[in-house]
Structures are given as C-alpha cells and as structure tokens.
Amino acid sequence: MIRVTPLVLAVAMFMERMDSTVIATSLPAIATDIGTEPVALKLALTSYFVALAIFIPVSGWMADRFGAKNIFRLAIFVFMLGSLACSFSYSLETFVVSRFFQGIGASMMTPIGRLLLVRSTPRNELVAAMAWLTVPALLGPITGPVVGGFLTTYLSWHWIFWINIPIGLAGIALATRFLKIIDERNPRPIDFVGFGLLAVAFSGSIFGLSVISLPALPIIYGYLTISVGVVSGILYFLHARRAKFPLLDPELFRHRLFRSAIIGGSVFRVGVGAVPFLLPLMLQARVRAVAICLRPDHLYRRCRCHSLKIHDREGVRQIRIQTGADPLRRCRRRAYCLAGAD
C-alpha cells in the first residue's frame, strides 16, 4: 500500500507538471494559429499561475468540507475540461481564459494529493512514501518539452492538450479503484473575506511581477497590481488576527519547525528554479555556448536521494542544510569552470 497510493497520486502530478513545460516549445505554433504574437502568450502563462495562486489557499477547506478524495478526482476532471478548452481556443482571449480554468484544476491536484498521502501513511513511512510520490512526477517536466515539440511538429499543437485526456481518465479510474481512504470531514465555514483578500494579494503580486519582467502590457499596470497585492496582503493579516476560522492561519508560523521549513524551502526553491534560466544566460555571455544547459531534474533527483540517506543517518534536522548546499556548490563550481574555459 505504501507504493500504490503515492504512485496513483503521482499520475495527477505528472500530468500537471508536464503541462507546465509542454507548452513552451509550442508557443510559436499556437501564436500563429490564433493570430497573435508569441510574446503576447505570456498572458496565458501568467493566467495559469494566477489561478494557482488564487485557488491553492482554498483547496484545504474544500477537502475538509467535501472530502479530499472527491475533490482530488474533481480537480483532475476540471483540468481535463480546461485542456479541451485550450485545444479549441481561437483567439488570445479564449486561450487566456482556458488556461485560467485549467489552472483551477491544477491548483487542487498537488496540495490535495499530498494531503491524501499524509492522511493515509504512517509517520514512520512518510519519507519513503513522499519519494514514491515525487520521483515519478519528475518525469513530467523532463518529458514535457520533448513531447510538446514532437506533437507540434508531426501532428499539431492541439495534441499537447488532448494528451491530458487519457492521462486524466486513468488518474480518475486509479483513484477510484485504489485510494481506500476514509475522508475526514470538517464542516467549518469558509472565510469569504479572507479568500477575497488572499486572491487579490497573490494574483496581484504574481501578475505585476510578470508584467514588469517582460512587459506584454504597459509597465505601469505591473506596479499598480503589485501595490494592490501588497495592500491586500497587509489587510489579510489584520483580518486573520480577528477571524475565527482564517483561510490561512498566520499563527502556524509560531511553530519553529514549520517556520524554518517554509522560509528555508522557499529560498531553496527560488534558487533551484532560477538556475535553469540564469545559467544559460551566463554561458551565452561568457562562453558563447548556447547548447550547454544544467539539467534541473538530475539535480533534484540527487537532492532527494541524498536527503533519504541523511534522514536515516542523522535525522530530519540536517536534511535541508546538506541537500541545499552540496549540489548547488557543485553546480556553481561547474558553471565557473565552464565560464573560465573561454
């Protein structure tokens, strides 16, 4: 059971993570077909992440209210409908709206999948179960660009979305057949005010940063939306101190272990996520070698295998320090060696 449950949940994570990279190699073909510029499709990518930012906070409440297993299957179904809508888009506006709808389903799959795993796995087996959940899902970002390029070249760009349909149907069927989990219901009321403030805060910040980084719109809109997002975030913290059931409880940061995991994990993920984009730019400037690229999937697998060994030998306290330091030091040394070869 320790292997079956995470592997079933990994189907949804594979589909969601593959979709996040499969579109990258198809943007020129999509732009030509719907009559727009490739840079304008940045709005479609941004709308997907905005949907994630808005609906991830409410996923926990929906799982407690309607059952985690039910919402997990519903999220896969919504993601499939969003994929179909993307494939039939005929303009930039319809494609942006379809990607937003697809992001609603994606926002529920990963957090609720992890919630199902935690609820169904004994604590002494949780680290191994997390490995079984994450490692298959890593195939998504790896295969996404290759699959997207192949389908766009030899079939059409519509197939990068149609391929999600059989994967999603398999995920729903496997979840219904193998996830024998008793849902824990908690009929607490939803914090509508908090949900609205968080939605504005997260979506405003993400949309504003996206516009500033690569202006598909006038850059003043980026600064305005970031300002609105920051103000909404401050208002939410003031609201959460008075609310009986806040959507995201800031009191959780009083726990030292939770606070350290969130802050340290966020910094680590920002660094790891930026390396695949910044390293090729550095190599183009210093070595003029466009083809050399760091493989983030390999780095991530090394980190995960290393963390399991540290957990068994020294405990959880040393995992974040060592897994974050060793591979990144090797990456930095490799980049400097390549740059020095010029």
Give a verbal description of the structure.
The chain starts with a helix and ends with a helix. The protein has helices at residues 4-22, 27-34, 42-66, 68-87, 92-120, 126-137, 139-154, 159-162, 164-178, 192-213, 219-240, 256-286, 296-314, 319-340. The chain has two domains: 4-188, Growth Hormone, Chain: A (Up-down Bundle), CATH 1.20.1250; 255-340, no CATH class. Helix 1 (4-22) packs antiparallel against helix 9 (164-178). The protein has 14 helices and no strands. The longest helix is centred in the last third of the chain and has 31 residues, at 256-286. The chain is globular. It has 342 residues and is an all-alpha fold.
How is the secondary structure organized here?
Elements: H1 4-22, H2 27-34, H3 42-66, H4 68-87, H5 92-120, H6 126-137, H7 139-154, H8 159-162, H9 164-178, H10 192-213, H11 219-240, H12 256-286, H13 296-314, H14 319-340
Helix pairs in contact: 1-5, 1-6, 1-7, 1-9, 3-4, 3-5, 3-10, 4-5, 4-9, 10-11, 12-14, 13-14
